[in-house]
Amino acid sequence: MQYAILCYNQEDVVGAWSKEEDDAVMARLMAVQDRLAQQGRLGPVARLLPTTSATTLRKSAGEPMVIDGPFAETKEQFLGFYVVNCDTLEEVIEIAKELAIANPGVGSYEIRPVGVFFPNGVAQP
Q: Which Pfam families match (predicted)?
């Protein structure tokens, strides 16, 4: 089963890291990613640009409205995600714990099973 690990943190805190701090966190995360890749368990990984670059299409009963910025005002923002292949929820929780150790501080990791959908019925490489 594929699981998405959604990464939330306080964007202003992460954005204030020095290049050295950011590089150190990324090196620790890369160690976890490298191991998962070697095991054939790592899918796509993305680090999102700041919410100031976000655009939201808000649905309504009438015409959808396009607005600048993230969907909701919160203390934590959605900053990126991992997709991992695991047999059990317990396995993906252990991976999320490793990511939390590699990237200490506040924030959270939301774990969600992924349902893969191919509109044309053909598996993508």
A: YCII
Write the burial class of residue 95 (CB in 10 Å: 0-12 exposed, 13-18 middle, 19+ buried).
buried
Give the strand pairing for 108-113 and 2-9.
antiparallel
Average pLDDT, the chain: 86
pTM: 0.80
3 state SS of 42:
strand
Instruction: Please state, in angstroms and rounded to a whole number, the distance separating the CA atoms of residues 112 and 102.
Output: 20
Whose tokens are 């990791």? That residue is: 109
| Closest listed residue to residue 109, CA positions, set 4, 16, 1 | 4
CA distance linking residue 9 with residue 104, whole number of Å: 10
45-87 pLDDT, tens digit per residue, is: 998 888 888 877 777 778 887 877 765 566 778 889 999 999 9
Report the C-alpha gap between 115 and 16 in whole angstroms: 35
